[in-house]
Design goal:
The complex is a heterodimer of chains A (742) and B (476).
Chain A (H helix, E strand, L loop, with lengths): L1 H18 L1 H13 L10 H18 L18 E4 L3 E2 L7 E5 L4 E5 L3 E6 L10 E4 L7 E4 L5 E7 L2 E6 L5 E5 L7 E6 L7 E5 L2 E7 L5 E8 L4 E5 L4 E6 L5 E8 L2 E9 L18 E6 L2 E8 L4 E7 L4 E8 L5 E6 L2 E6 L4 E5 L15 E4 L8 H9 L17 E4 L3 E4 L4 E7 L1 H7 L3 H9 L5 H17 L4 H20 L5 H4 L14 H9 L2 H12 L5 H7 L8 H13 L6 H17 L7 H12 L3 H9 L7 H10 L4 H13 L3 H10 L3 H10 L7 H10 L3 H14 L7 H13 L6
Chain B lengths: L1 E4 L6 E5 L14 E5 L5 H21 L8 E4 L2 E4 L6 H19 L2 H7 L4 H18 L10 H4 L7 E2 L5 H17 L6 E6 L2 E5 L3 H15 L1 H16 L2 H11 L19 E3 L5 E3 L16 E4 L4 E10 L2 E8 H5 L5 H26 L12 E6 L4 E4 L2 H4 L4 H20 L7 E6 L5 E7 L2 E7 L6 H15 L8
Parallel strand pairs in B: 6-15
Antiparallel strand pairs in B: 1-2, 2-3, 4-5, 7-8, 7-13, 9-10, 11-12, 12-13, 14-15, 14-18, 16-17, 17-18
Helix pairs in contact in B: 2-7, 4-9, 6-11, 7-8
Classes of the chains: A alpha+beta (742), B alpha+beta (476).
Organism (chain A): Brassica carinata (Ethiopian mustard)
Protein name (chain A): Mic1 domain-containing protein
Pfam families (chain A): RMC1_C, RMC1_N
Chain lengths: 742, 476
């Protein structure tokens, strides 16, 4: 047995090493070359590469049987990953790859053709549109915003425009010699349609349907380089010897706004007293609807952040740099700083004031397969397939040919593939210890709202099950309730607004709490699915599940169902603790003026009664912390089996709610026949049969009661003495005791 | 056994144990407390002898349960002479006993621990004297004015009605206070002025602690201390009696352990917001924890330390397990620190919120009605403000008194069973005095509109019941 095991291990290791041979060799040679001066982390780069490669291989080779899309790689040490399949753009005779961020087009050009792929949906099967253009050098390509015109920069003084329908062509040239063309971009501002950036400034043009360019305005600035992103509509023009003087314009739908000129921070050292900022050192970052600029200061090894306001540019603090090469991505409003040399990515959430990273630096992972067919067969089949030139052997993380595109794409120029960067929310959650901040973080996620929501529910459950201090759980609950309240107010939480079936949680992911959840939600699953279909546009099943939630907000009802109700059974002996937490939950709900499923009240009564906390039960009921309802009253009656005072609270509630029938039945059950009769008469309740009183009195064996009731009934109901009921009970009475006169 | 008679102007109150002094010449040993103490021994003996005789006599007719005017609680009985205002006296006797037990444990347990009865006497004398000194207004020992007490019920708490929001804030605070005691659950009680806001104690313990808090701890009790004390110093009877009674009948060896929890003017508010007293300060003197006030909880038969925190009108009582503190699992100063750190801000906010919504002393006045509602199950009562009750005509008050006596008699006859009662009396001044007792809830009411018919009056009661008692009192 033992031998067999070790043989398996050896062969596994062998296979891993075979797969990662390049990385292993690199690491080995690095260590070997520096063996005399070896110290910790000297060959960190090579080691991280090897480690990440080995992790991938292990993942691919030994998928867990229960693994679903979420569990692949959840054990691997990474918080961000790129995932198969990629978008392939390998066109024969390709002369270059470009990305048009305004239209989200990946563009591949040959000498006379332009291939363009839509990347917005990131569908690997999408076929490119092909346009023919005259031959010539291509420095950059951008489609107009209506995609009718293709603009191609031919040289540093010439841009050509091709109309895709009319095949019309237009050439725009700038004055040769005195100025050179740095680039151009299309704009949707009302003032202009096209901006051309030259060393002497920026020209803004209007362009009509006949492709006539009309110069609208010129912004005169000396420009060394510029950056622009369509999502921010912001262009930054760098000038000065060190290129650290920045002039910014926002070409938004509101018009062209000139931002205050500002200087970037740049440290100087003895060896480099006048460092120069290049375009690659500056990135525009759009998160949470705010625009930031991040700038590399290599001498200081810092990444400075600036936030743009309408009338000011404010430096926001700096992040440390661990690599001489750096790039950034934005995924789901998070800033991912790729430390390219170290082959790790650090995630920051600029929403919070703290500039501490969301989690520790870890490598970017490559994930092989999505979906449930992570079987080895499927893996090998994929490896064998001729198309699959990007199997794990060919992917080198952070290789030089990688280009980082705004906001979350990576273009691998070598393999001619496009990757999208994903976050592994589970891994981030798993590595975070401060759960309140983690919940806040997860509640801010939009891209994988459903996953974030599930994680939040899991965290809330875990906090309670681990019996964390009530203050800590309270904070967590407050975060969730506040986030929900906000998302309802902001109108993000649309799906749940109209329907009562608030639980739109898919029940097919294999995480263990689902069993409980399925039980708790019970029959409502079918309704949920109907609602999903009604609300959602077409899309693949997987996407539908992911996209059905636009917000990870958790309604109070869901919190009750998936957190409180699901932990109640396991925490039977911890009623006090649960009551403390539910009290805080109710306070949070009430503070936000939200409503909650009345079952939470029923549960609270059950818990208070179980721990015999009568005083509080009474306070909760009389002060309406527990809102009156029939269900609540019935629970009080049931829990009142142990304490007659609790039962009385239930009776009082029935009466207050005018639930005449239930009230009278309960009175009779408790032996208050006359009070019940009196009530029935006062409230003119006719639904209660007279036999109810008679039978109850007879069953109690108190013949005096029976006699009294017979008498009252015969006075109350005209002709009662003639009914068979009267005869029956009168007869019974006489049989049992002849001494009681009626 | 306690006996009280108020036949003539002065009041006699005696606590005696029938099991003691059985042999000739040892009769004095029966007496555990006698008031007034200056009464000669032979009179004391004759009073107790008469009481004993009455009790023994009535036992002949009802050997199982002693006659209804004897309040049985295991072996300690409360006996009183049936004179006017009986129900009131009864309430007082019950109350003083409950309070005594809360601070000292049961009299029986004390006697078992120390058979000579010296310690019991030493504790009883000052305790009851302090209690009486608090009740009596005027030079002579007179029972409290019936004008003030006709529409009130001893042995119940008065609750503050809170909005849902405030109530949730309060309950949240209760949870925070609870957590200040570490892993052990610590009971809490919160008062606003002299109204109960929240409690986690059983009804009995709540009533006892509430009574004590209203007497000595609430913001009003603290501020009124000065005035009542100045009276007591002027009054000759009680203050002399109390000083004498503590020393007179005792052996000196027990002196050091006598504590007088009901002593007036002994509580002050410390800088940190906690109330301090030196009443318990004499107990041992060792660790600072030993001078913390302590009480017995009936429900759990547990001795707990009593911490009182006050912010403006809000008084918070925290009860900490003495065993936990003696074991060193918990320290009082830590708990205090926790309360200040975790809860003081919330306490401030809640006080502010309640004060803002508080309708003042006439908050629970209902125009046209003078009422008392008692829920004996919850041991809660609510009544018209005393200032409004005082406006009732003497005839109405007398009729009300009569009515209450009647109900008490009826209740004691029914023993533990719940009775359904409805009595309407037309007083001499044509006022309607009405009571309705149903399923453990009692309503007493005076309606002084002379032109009303009985039908009008019962309608008025019905409206009141529906509006303010969620329809608990159905009228025929």
């Amino acid at each position: 047995m033992k031998e067999k095991n070790s043989a398996t291990t050896a062969s596994t290791l062998g296979r891993i090493l075979a797969t990662c041979s390049k990385q292993a060799k690199d690491y080995g040679s690095c260590v070997a070359s520096k063996v005399h001066e070896i110290e910790k982390d000297l060959c960190l780069k090579q080691f991280l590469a090897l480690k990440s490669c080995m992790q991938h291989t292990v993942k691919i080779m030994s998928p867990r049987p229960s693994s679903s899309q979420t569990s692949v790689g959840s054990g691997a040490l990474s918080h961000a990953y790129i995932q198969h399949p990629s978008l392939r753009c390998n066109v024969p005779e390709s002369r270059g790859l470009f990305y048009d961020d305004a239209n989200r087009l990946l563009i591949c050009v040959t000498s006379s053709q332009v291939f363009s792929w839509e990347t917005a949906t990131f569908n690997p099967d999408v076929s490119p549109s092909v346009d023919s253009i005259p031959e010539g050098p291509i420095l950059s390509v951008r489609f107009s915003l209506d995609k009718k015109v293709i603009a191609v920069q031919r040289s540093d003084c010439e841009i050509q425009f091709f109309h895709r329908e009319t095949k019309q062509t237009l050439t725009h040239k700038c004055r040769a010699g005195s100025e050179s063309l740095l680039g151009f971009f299309w704009s949707d501002s009302p003032l202009c349609d096209l901006a051309v950036v030259k060393t002497s400034g920026m020209d803004l043009f209007a362009c009509d349907s006949a492709m006539n360019l009309r110069l609208v305005e010129t912004k005169k600035v000396n420009v060394n380089w510029y950056i622009y992103t369509h999502e921010s509509r912001l262009v930054l023009l760098a000038s000065g010897l060190q290129c650290k003087t920045i002039t910014g314009f926002q070409l938004s739908t509101a018009g062209v706004v000139r931002l205050p000129k500002f200087e970037m921070t740049l440290a100087s050292t003895e060896s480099n007293s006048k460092p120069i900022i290049s375009a690659g050192d500056v990135h525009l970052v759009t998160v949470y609807g705010r625009i930031y600029c991040v700038q590399v200061d290599m001498e200081a090894m810092l990444l400075h952040t600036y936030r743009f306001y309408r009338d000011a540019v404010v430096q926001q603090g700096s992040l440390p740099i661990y690599s001489s090469k750096l790039s950034v991505s934005v995924v789901d409003n998070l800033l991912l700083v790729h430390q390219i040399d170290a082959k790790v990515v650090i995630i920051y959430d600029l929403f919070v004031d703290s500039r501490a990273p969301v989690s520790a630096p870890l490598p970017l992972l490559w994930r092989g397969y999505q979906g449930s067919d992570t079987s080895p067969q499927a893996a090998s089949k994929e490896n064998e397939s001729p198309e699959s030139s990007t199997s794990s052997e060919n992917i080198v993380m952070y290789e030089d040919a990688w280009t980082f595109l705004v906001p979350d794409l990576i273009l691998d120029q070598t393999n001619k593939v496009l990757w999208r960067v994903h976050l592994d929310l589970e891994a981030i959650s798993a590595s975070s210890s401060d759960r309140t901040s983690l919940l806040e973080f997860l509640q801010r996620r939009k891209l994988e709202a459903n996953k974030a929501k599930q994680l939040c529910l899991g965290i809330a459950r875990a906090l309670i099950l681990e019996r964390r201090p009530a203050t800590q759980v309270t904070q967590a609950i407050d975060v969730l309730v506040t986030a929900y309240s906000y998302s309802v107010k902001a109108g993000i939480y649309k799906e749940l607004k109209n329907g009562k079936t608030t639980a739109t949680i898919p029940t097919n992911d294999g995480a263990s709490p689902d069993n409980e959840r399925g039980r708790a939600s019970g029959s409502s699953i079918d309704e949920e699915e109907e609602e999903v279909e009604m609300n959602l546009p077409s899309g693949s099943a997987d996407e539908q599940q992911e996209s059905q939630l636009s917000s990870p907000a958790i309604s109070p009802d869901e919190l009750y169902k998936f957190v409180f109700a699901s932990v109640e059974e396991t925490m039977v002996d911890e009623s006090d603790y649960l009551v403390a937490i539910i009290t805080e939950f109710l306070r949070s709900i009430s503070a936000e003026k939200l409503k909650v499923d009345l079952n939470i009240y029923v549960m609270t009564i059950r818990l208070l009664a179980r721990s015999k906390r009568f005083a509080e039960l009474s306070l909760f009921t009389t002060n309406k912390i527990i809102e009156p309802s029939k269900e609540v009253a019935l629970q009080l009656l049931e829990s009142g089996g142990q304490d007659p005072r609790v039962r009385k609270l239930g009776l009082d509630m029935l009466r207050q709610l005018s639930l005449h029938h239930e009230y009278i039945s309960s009175l009779v059950q408790d032996g208050y026949y006359l009070e019940a009769l009196r009530y029935a008469q006062k409230r003119k309740v006719t639904s209660v049969r007279s036999s109810l009183f008679l039978e109850a009195a007879f069953a109690s064996n108190d013949m005096q009661h029976l006699a009294a009731i017979l008498r009252v009934l015969s006075e109350l109901i005209p002709g009662f003495k003639e009914t068979s009921e009267y005869y029956t009970f009168h007869g019974l009475l006489n049989e049992t005791s002849s001494s009681v006169a009626v | 056994m306690a006996s009280m008679s108020s036949g003539d102007e002065s009041l006699r109150l005696c606590v005696f144990d029938l099991r003691r002094g059985q042999t000739e010449g040892q009769e004095l040993d029966k007496i555990l407390f006698f008031h007034p103490p200056e009464l000669d021994v032979s009179t004391q003996l004759s009073v107790t002898g008469l009481s004993e005789g009455l009790i023994t006599f009535t036992r002949l007719f009802s050997p199982e349960a002693a006659c209804e005017v004897i309040e049985a609680e295991r072996h300690s009985h409360v006996f009183y002479e049936p004179e006017p205002d009986i129900w009131m006296v009864m309430g007082m006797l019950k109350e003083v006993h409950s309070l005594f037990v809360m601070f000292h444990g049961s009299v029986r347990a004390l006697l078992e621990k120390e058979p000579t009865g010296g310690l019991t006497r030493a504790q009883l004398y000052p305790f009851i004297t302090d209690y009486l000194s608090n009740l009596f207004v005027g030079k002579k020992h007179q029972l409290p004015n019936f004008r003030e007490t006709t529409l009130s019920e001893r042995g119940t708490v008065q609750m503050l009605t809170l909005s849902k929001d405030t109530s949730l804030e309060v309950q949240s605070l209760v949870q925070v206070l609870d957590s200040c005691g570490g892993n052990l659950r610590c009971h809490t009680m919160i008062l606003f002025q002299d109204l109960l806001v929240s409690t986690t104690l059983s009804p009995n313990d709540t009533v006892n602690l509430f009574t004590f808090a209203v007497m000595r701890l609430t913001s009003q009790a603290l501020s009124s201390d000065a005035s009542s004390w100045s009276y007591l110093r002027k009054g000759t009877g009680s203050s002399e009696a109390s000083s004498r009674s503590t020393s007179a009948p005792l052996g000196s060896d027990n002196m050091h352990s006598v504590i007088r929890p009901l002593q007036n003017d002994k509580w002050t508010k410390g800088k940190d917001g906690f109330l301090v007293t030196d009443i318990w300060g004499l107990e041992t003197g060792g660790s600072p924890d030993s001078i913390i006030p302590a009480v017995w909880l009936q429900q759990t038969q547990e001795r707990v330390y009593l911490l009182a925190y006050q912010y403006k009108s809000l008084t918070l009582l925290l009860l900490l397990s003495t065993t936990a503190i003696l074991n060193g699992d918990l320290s009082v100063s830590d708990v205090k620190q926790q309360v200040i750190e975790q809860a003081s801000l919330r306490i401030m906010k809640i006080e502010e919120k309640i004060s803002r919504g508080w309708g003042g002393e006439n908050a629970y006045h209902v125009k046209g009605y003078r009422y008392l509602v008692v829920d004996s199950g919850l041991e809660v009562s609510r009544a018209s403000p005393s200032g409004k009750v005082a406006t009732l005509a003497k005839e109405s008050l007398l009729a009300l008194n009569k009515l209450r006596e009647e109900v008490d008699l009826e209740k004691s006859r029914a023993k533990r069973q719940e009775r359904d009662l409805e009595i309407c009396i037309r007083a001499k001044n044509n006022a309607w005095v009405i009571t309705r007792v149903t399923r453990g809830k009692e309503l007493y009411m005076a309606l002084e509109k002379a032109s009303d018919t009985l039908l009008d009056a019962t309608d008025a009661v019905g409206r009141f019941s529906n509006r303010y008692c969620s329809g608990a009192f159905l009228m025929d």
